[in-house]
Task: structure prediction
Amino acid sequence: MSVLVFIDQTEGKIKKSSYEAASYGAQTASLLGTHAEGIILGKTEENLSALGNYGLKKVHTIEDNQLNKFDAQVYAKLIHEVLVSSGADTIVFSNNISAKAIAPRLSVKLKAGLVSGAVALPVLSNGFIVKKSVFSGKAFANISINTSKKIISVNPNSFNISTIEGTAEIIPFSTSIPTSIIETTTVNKITGEVPLGEADIVVSGGRGLKGPENWGLVTELASLLNAATACSRPVADIHWRPHHEHVGQTGLAIAPNLYIAIGISGAIQHLAGVNRSKTIVVINKDPEAPFFKAADYGIVGDAFEVVPKIIDSIKKMKSSS
Amino acid sequence: MKILVCISKTPDTTAKIAFADNNTKFSADGVQWIINPYDEWYSLVRAIELKEADSSINIHLINIGGSDNEPIIRKALALGGDEAIRVDTDKNDSFYIASQIAHIAKEGNYDLILTGKETIDYNGSSVGAMVAELLDTPFISHATKFNIESGNAIVVREIEGGEETNKVAFPLVVSCQKGMAEQRIPNMKGIMGARTKPLKVVEPAAAEEFTAVATFDLPPAKAGVKLVSPETPEELVRLLHEEAKVI
Result:
């Protein structure tokens, strides 16, 4: 009877979205009248007892270099073992690529109902109901989990991190690690950039920027705001920008605090990937661009004149603060 | 080699999203139904490309749903599936759906099962991995490239912050996304041929449902855009800093 939170790490570092999941797990546990624990697989360089500051009482660890290579089949088996030994009956993930491969496997192993893409804490007044994003951010569904064990995978950037004073007890778990039957031949990681899915601020460009040579505007504004850069589908399709920057229906769906769209008209397929952003700014010279209907703030104007002025203004604001 | 391609029916990407019966059901009024784009553009078309390179490959389609799903199944057959199976049920819990697919997959001894990375209606991203677990096979998610080399699958998949190439033996389950293939339109020969391709309807196997939709909600309407003059972009910066408090 406890909540187990999967703490995801990459290159030995815990992801921001895992702190969101820990906060979500701790608050779910208090609703259920129990406590939350964490599980982390692979070697890390983090001080894991500090996860207590996010409400976790214990952290189960399996420190083995083999686990720094991700294989959902292996991960699911180990999480299952830890879950059984810890007596947890609710598991919380951050809904990223890894969770999307692990959580459904655990759902089958445990006969546990899974809600992926949760955006709010469970409501317990009438069963166990979790609100999730559906129809590519255009609506929400309240899903009733009807099994005794439950799995919730929380959308990144949709639940605030909350901290308290606390120290988590570290509990090494010893078991034999199954050999992965997937052989990884090459890995290409984009380093040094803010990961798009986790970024608080995203600056995005569309065809209105006229060519890849003009992307300096986007990247300069982004680096000034410590933001990730993104683009619309046509821009990725004509190779002005790499595919992994494409946000929209067929690209990545994101939910930053601030999304700045420059020269993007806002087709419904693009909106499907960004409509969960908390604040949307649209800069477009076409006053009829559909994106203005979905925006919080807008400027009808030429990006090549407006954006440099915005950059100057932010620089001034930063130097005066 | 036998490939099973999972085909789901979803509302068109531009469909108006509305709900009926006290917000407990999706309102299908005036909605155009399509093959889930990830299932069609990426997994089905990639399977067809593999068959074009090796004619010994057989492509079977599976759809879980009622008889009103048949138009999209015929369209998938017109694109290039060899035959189709429809499991006749209107249930939509992920585990229930995955159990049906796994049941058919076990009977048919498929080497490869392809799904889209998610459906654009429920955005669950769950069924592929559940099928893999039920069959005890590897699952590679978010694949952007898929090839067969000396009897192994070579799959490029998206990982957090990059991509990696995996080599794995069959059988396996792969979920597909952009990069796998380019969208195709069925030609007249395909459309004519699809009419006579086998479409078998089977009763669902016994399986549990773990979850149920209680209600749907629409997000609150936006207050409306606050426009700033292009002559004074510094006003936008002030609003973002002082009002929205996001920078």
The first helix of chain B runs from residue 37 to 53. The longest strand of chain B covers residues 139-149.
